[in-house]
Every structure is written in structure tokens, then in C-alpha cells.
Amino acid sequence: MKTYVAKKEDVKKDWYLIDAKDKVLGRLAVQIADILKGKNKVIYTPHVDTGDFVVVVNVEKMHFTGNKLLQKTYHRHSGYMGNAKSITLEEMMTKHPERVLMHAVKGMLPKSKLGRQMLKKLKVYKGSEHPHQAQTPKPIS
User: Fold this and answer.
1) Which of 61, 63, 64, 137 could hold 15 in an S-S bridge, CB 3.0 to 4.6 Å?
2) CATH number, residue 51
3) Over the range 114-141, which residues count as b (16 or more CB within 10 Å of their CB) and which as e?
4) How many CB atoms lie within 10 A of CB 88?
5) 3 is a domain residue
């Protein structure tokens, strides 16, 4: 018997809705990354995008373990001398809570074209409203 290799045409993409309220960031990011990769499907193939779309709402109500709100920092650099910038998790949650989850999930996906393609299937929103009702996403607890 030969190993089944999924093809792009064989993959059916579903939509899932996740409510981030009272969920821990890391555990939520792992769950989302597995769905985006397609690891929850029988036809999972590492070199084919077999994952589904994920819509996350209420991202501003996520929880963090330990003292991460004050101690965790995000760094970026423009490439110019002396232009390194740092921002704490607490500041990031007040300004852009969507980016916190996107950053965590991005680190759990492959660092390749396939990983960037998977990340495009993640839709993150503040509040409980989202513009994807037409796709009828299945809620996941």
C-alpha cells in the first residue's frame, strides 16, 4: 500500500470560529496553528496546504500566565543605527491586540512560502463581530 499524498485540488477548506475570551495565549496559538497546518485532518501532508480558515474574535480578552504583561517585550528594528524599538505586551494589548495573537501563531508555522500562505487564512478581530458570517464558520470551544 502506498502512502497517500494530498493534492491541492483534493483539499476542502472549512471555516472555524474561535472565541479567545478567557483563553491563554500560548495554548490558543497552538490550537490555531494546528488547524492552519491541517494537522487535525486525516489527509495532512507537510508540503501541501491542507489547513482550514480560522476566525478569532474577542482577542482583547485573552489571558496570560505569570508576569508576562509586564516582562514580555516585542522588539523591532528598521535597519538604521540606533533605531531599535521595544514595546511591552501590556502596551501591545492596548494598541494592537490582534498583532499579539498573529505574532504567536506566526512563530508556530513553517518559515517558508507555505507558512506565509497559512498565516493569510487566520482572521483576527477585536470584539465579537466579524465579517465572515457568509462562510458559516463552525464554533470551536
Assistant:
1) 137
2) 3.90.1180.10
3) bbeebeebbbbbeeeebeeeebebeeee
4) 15
5) no
Look at strands 73-77 and 84-88 and give their pairing. antiparallel
The residues facing 122 across adjacent strands are 54
Distance (Å, whole) CA 75 – CA 78:
10
Domain of residue 111 covers 13-129
Helix (H, G, I), strand (E, B) or coil at 62: coil
Query: Cβ(28)–Cβ(16) under 8 Å?
Result: no
Nearest residue to 104 (alpha-carbon basis) of 64, 47, 44: 64
The pLDDT tens digits of the residues spanning 35-92 come to: 999 999 999 999 999 999 999 999 999 999 999 999 999 999 999 999 999 999 999 9
The answer as to whether 123 is a domain residue is yes
Tell me the three cell numbers of residue 49: 496546504
Q: Is residue 93 part of a domain?
A: yes
In a domain, 2, yes or no: no
CB atoms within 10 A of CB 8: 9
